[in-house]
């Protein structure tokens, strides 16, 4: 394992000063300690003035850098945390104290690797843990619970959330995004809304599911099946086709999809490079007229880089994403792209914003509670919802709510975005209030 200590740059893009302030509960202290708001949704850093120079507050980040999976998403998370860290520090830090990141490599695929990575950081005495995800959450939850510091995660895992709900006294320091099951229920809702809008007329009501082999993908598939069954005949389950990670030859899958000729196809798989390979092979031998949805993997920068023109027309979604219509969305994108030398086509759209938000949630809590008092910090996070790039972050029950699948008011949850590749870039097409463009018929649908 290696440790990386990241120092503050002299300046950060001015439009990146989009940190969080408490929006409810006992938030008076947070409001008093914050700079004037820069928008209705976010506020500037917890302290004004020059760069922070006090004793650092250290965030531990278990980031996959050398393993076989997760590197793109983990790098996106690391980048988002760097941007938040530098912005906080450039604006005076947290009560004069700078934030530092202690980053260690981690094997996210084995219990032993996950335990070792988290124990390395807790052994270093960090004040919080920020992780994009691990494939097997229980070992991470147990190390974090024993340590007690806030554990901010993007696990998107219903099983981990159930563990927390079963013993909130033990796991009350675990704060996480909405569960993967919303990919399933949200997808069926998206299909219904798109059909009802008149922007898409499905050739039939059948839905095929290509199911990955992780528990995560199994949960998504089951949630989709359940939502189809609950649609009272509006949608019909076609075939569930199982695949394994590492799939390169998609021809057997494509043959089954062609034979089934479903109106909608869900590729329930999370690895961007493999979804890019599917897109290339599907574009060469498409199922005419079918809407094709790829689970969140296209958010990873390599998807568009590998898929190229073949990506055009594919739809994908994420329960924690980055919009492009509000001033806050645009400012975050501009700051991130300037900092890391990317553009709209190559910027990750999931974990940069989520981990940026998580660092800012911590900064806001530390402005109001002693970072060394883990119980007080955890209690503050749970009691004080905040607004971030990904939406409204309410950790009262551990996992923040989601809009529009559960919450009908966008001000009460993080946004479940749907994108379509249009003219070579990821374009928000849903929810309607955040849409950059309408759904467009894919090349194989015309």
Brief digest:
The protein has 446 residues and is of the alpha/beta class. The chain has helices spanning 28-33, 71-90, 111-123, 137-147, 158-166, 168-171, 181-197, 215-230, 251-260, 272-284, 302-307, 327-340, 351-366, 374-383; strands spanning 4-5, 57-62, 99-104, 128-131, 151-153, 174-176, 206-211, 236-242, 264-268, 291-294, 315-318, 386-388, 391-393, 402-403, 414-415, 417-422, 425-430. The strands form four sheets. The chain has a seven-stranded mixed sheet, with helices on both faces.
Which characteristics define this entry?
446 residues, alpha/beta, six-stranded mixed sheet, 14 helices, disordered N terminus
């Amino acid at each position: 394992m290696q440790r990386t200590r990241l120092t503050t740059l002299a300046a950060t893009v001015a439009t990146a000063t989009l940190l969080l302030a408490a929006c409810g509960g006992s938030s008076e202290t947070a409001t008093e300690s914050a700079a004037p708001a820069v928008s209705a949704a976010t506020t500037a850093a917890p302290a004004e003035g020059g760069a922070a120079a006090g004793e650092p507050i250290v965030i531990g980040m278990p980031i996959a850098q050398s393993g076989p999976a997760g590197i793109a998403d983990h790098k996106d998370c690391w980048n988002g945390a760097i941007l938040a860290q530098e912005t906080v520090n450039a604006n005076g830090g947290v009560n004069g104290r700078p934030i530092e990141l202690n980053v260690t490599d981690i094997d996210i695929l084995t219990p032993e690797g996950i335990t070792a990575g988290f124990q390395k950081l807790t052994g270093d005495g960090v004040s919080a843990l920020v992780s994009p995800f691990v494939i097997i959450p229980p070992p991470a939850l147990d190390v974090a619970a024993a340590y007690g510091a806030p554990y901010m995660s993007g696990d998107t895992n219903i099983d981990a959330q159930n563990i927390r709900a079963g013993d909130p006294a033990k796991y009350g320091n675990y704060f996480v995004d909405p569960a993967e099951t919303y990919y399933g229920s949200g997808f069926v809702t998206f299909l219904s809304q798109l059909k009802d809008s008149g922007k898409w007329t499905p050739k039939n009501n059948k839905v095929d599911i290509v199911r990955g082999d992780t528990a995560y993908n199994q949960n998504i598939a089951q949630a989709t099946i359940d939502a189809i069954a609950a649609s009272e005949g509006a949608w019909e389950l076609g075939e569930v086709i199982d695949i394994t990670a590492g799939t390169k030859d998609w021809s057997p899958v494509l043959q089954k999809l062609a034979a089934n000729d479903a109106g909608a196809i869900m590729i329930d798989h999370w690895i961007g490079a493999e979804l890019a390979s599917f897109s290339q092979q599907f574009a060469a031998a498409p199922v005419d007229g079918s809407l094709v949805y790829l689970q969140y993997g296209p958010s990873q920068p390599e998807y568009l880089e590998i898929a190229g023109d073949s990506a055009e027309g594919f739809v994908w979604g994420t329960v924690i994403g980055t919009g492009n219509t509000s001033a806050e969305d645009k400012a975050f994108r501009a700051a991130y792209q300037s900092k890391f030398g990317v553009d709209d086509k190559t910027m990750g759209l999931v974990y940069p914003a989520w981990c940026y938000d998580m660092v800012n949630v911590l900064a806001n809590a530390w402005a109001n509670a002693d970072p060394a008092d883990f119980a007080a910090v955890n209690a503050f996070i749970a009691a004080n919802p905040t607004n971030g790039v990904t939406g409204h972050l309410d950790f009262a029950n551990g996992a923040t709510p989601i809009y529009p699948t559960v919450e009908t008011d966008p001000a009460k949850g993080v946004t479940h975005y749907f994108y379509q590749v249009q003219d070579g870039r990821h374009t928000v097409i849903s929810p309607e209030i955040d849409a950059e463009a309408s759904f467009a018929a894919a090349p194989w649908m015309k």
